[in-house]
Amino acid sequence: MIVYINGNDNRCKQLAKLMIADGYQIQEDSRLISSCDIIYLGKDGQGFEQVDFKNNAVVLSLLKNQRLCYLSKLKGFNYRYLYSDEDFVVENTHISDEAVIAYMIIDNSISLSNSNVLILGYGHCGRDLAAKLEKFNAKVSISNRSDHYHDEVVEKGYRYIRLDQLTLNGYDFVINTIPSQIIDSNILKTKDVNCKIYDVASTPYGLKTCDRDESYHLLKQLPTKYAYDSSAKALYKAIKRAVDLYA
């Protein structure tokens, strides 16, 4: 089978090696994408909506592309976004969160132990970060856009803060996982001088560009940069599961 991989980051390079080892042929010329059986488009597949994919080709992206979803029904190719695969999301989250914590340790002169950490958001990423940071003996607080997880957060021993009551006072570290600019200039005024903000959310991220200073760290696309061998293996397993659905 012929495979096209859209991307040249370390994870994509390792993915290509894994697939070649399993007997797949990698097509590197994007002009020949219409001849490919499996097409991995990377983040969201934007810019590939006009491609004439071959009949029964398996077209994949990480995030859902509504246009490709619609076109697949009209043109006879199979489309799936990999973040609909819960196993992949969980595995990818573990890798990303390890990278966040490694970055925090290297980037700071204080220990995570006994530090005060505020996590914004309690989805896959926020929940896993809280559990990992607890192992480092950090004091974890959670703020979420809704109160849906309030009871779970409290039962686990974390401090819960309503987002509409949010201040950054007293925290050594703030980790944002919410893809919304919720940390405005008024909230920033409550931040301690030495507090670091780590933003791992997708666009539009947690702060406006004009509000970012040297204490703000935008950590994008971590699985493509850290532990990319493990990241590629997780991605490859998800691709194989998707392909098997249409076998």
Automatic annotation (TrEMBL):
One of this protein's Pfam families, by short name? 2-Hacid_dh_C
Q: Which domain of life is it from?
A: Bacteria
Q: Which InterPro entries match?
A: D-isomer_DH_NAD-bd, NAD(P)-bd_dom_sf
Gene Ontology MF: a single term:
NAD binding
**What residue ranges carry the coiled-coil annotation?**
none
Domain D-isomer specific 2-hydroxyacid dehydrogenase NAD-binding residues, every copy: 110-182
What is this protein identified as? D-isomer specific 2-hydroxyacid dehydrogenase NAD-binding domain-containing protein
